[in-house]
Structure prediction request, 151 residues.
Amino acid sequence: MSGMVAEAEAYRGSKDPASHAFRGMTPRNSLMFGEAGHGYLYFSYGSHWCLNVTTEPPGIPGAVLIRSILPLEGTEAMLMNRGLAVAKHVADGPGKLTKALMIDGGLNGEDLIHSRKLYFLEGTNGLLVKSGPRIGVSKGRSARWRFYLQT
DNA sequence: TTCGTGATACCC
DNA sequence: GGTATCACGAAC
Prediction:
């Protein structure tokens, strides 16, 4: 399975009130303080996993929340995982994409550069990247750290 | 628009 | 121990 990241949000550490790491390190968010390029998975609202990728050197908390992808390969498998028939909304949300790609806490701390299970490739496309306020956060609204592809 | 859902963190 | 919060999804 593969897809193109269509939407992501940046979360920084101690200076970002919306970040899990704002109030220091806890067992749950400790991975945000680790080496860049690793997975930080958290279970939220009692039902879904959210995929983050750490972005900063060890000791400095920071991560990017992958919010949405456009399926490229393996769309059929993603539909199976979601129990859907049409691909329209198969992975257009943080919880949806993890379910579609069968991502869960097992990838917590995974090296997402060298991993064989889940990894990122660099690429470009002709779509415009826009930015706006992050979604679902009550603090830190002024930072327009949500980035998404114009569709 | 609402409600279920459960882990977490923080407060006793 | 309890409880408020939550970077959401699905149903309605």
Q: What stands out?
A: Residues 110 and 116 of chain A are 10 Å apart (CA to CA).
